[in-house]
Write a structure and sequence with these properties.
This protein is an alpha+beta fold and 299 residues long. It contains seven helices and 17 strands. The radius of gyration is 19 Å and the shape is globular. Bound molecules: 4'-deoxy-4'-aminopyridoxal-5'-phosphate.
Amino acid sequence: MVQVTKFIWMNGKFVKWNDAKVHITTHALHYGSAVFEGIRSYNTDRGAALFRLDDHLGRLFYSAKALGIKIKFTENEIKDVIKKLLKMNNLENAYVRPLAYHGYGSIGVYPDNVTSEIAIIAVPDYIKDTKRLRLATSSYVRPSDKSTAFGAKISGNYANSILAMKAAREKGYDEALMVGSDGFVAEGPAENLFVIKNKVLTTPSSRSALYGFTRDTLLKISKDINIKSKEKRLTLNEVKNSDEAFFCGTGKEISPIISIDNHKIGNGKAGKITSQLKDLYFDIARGRNKKYSKWLTYV
Ligand code: PMP
């Protein structure tokens, strides 16, 4: 259940949680014509800090452009709104959800004469523990850049994720592992995948996976614990036969994968390198590692 906060920002105004409403003909409700981000803020010695905020806002504007949604605010204005919203809701460890969408004006598929809307929600950290995941390979193929806009975080794309997760949950698994139309492993329903084999960290180089910032962070920081990293096309067999595997993303952070289709990964426990990467990631996100302070925006 989502945790209620005091305020939500909609189209330039802070409104009370219960007043943040949309009309039933809202285009995005019918066709998934919305774009969104998930951003984390963490408590640090200097108060709350947002992790990789500029990157997330860059992707929000890129996604909106891809779908023809006009954001009537600058990135800097949105940044200030997010900081203010966290303060107004008394949040430090939080999850921030900007959402831009095609609004009112038409119920046809093409968003002709439809308003562009934007809202920002901030809720307390909603994932408490990083779970050890048991995955099922999905029979739903991950859309590639030939079926959707590459790198855009478009709400409609998540119907594919929901279907894959629903099938996995109905079979008693935690999450789905998605394969791309090229037959190579792509990612999870809302997270990127990494595997570790012989102390090398590898993530799929797939046009079917989102260019995640947690993924990017890990590719850059792994050398600090003497682990080489690379992007490579990965087969399902390679993933299943890795020493360690994990999902990563802003929401999921770093979650160890302990089995795929009931095939144990490594020794079936959270891996050692996965845990080291997780510690390093949290040190950075919580402002305890000066080397990467450029990724933090203090509230
Ligand atoms: N893939 C998908 C499909 C996602 O929705 C997300 C979450 N945004 C990710 C990967 C991870 O991206 P990030 O690390 O930027 O949150």
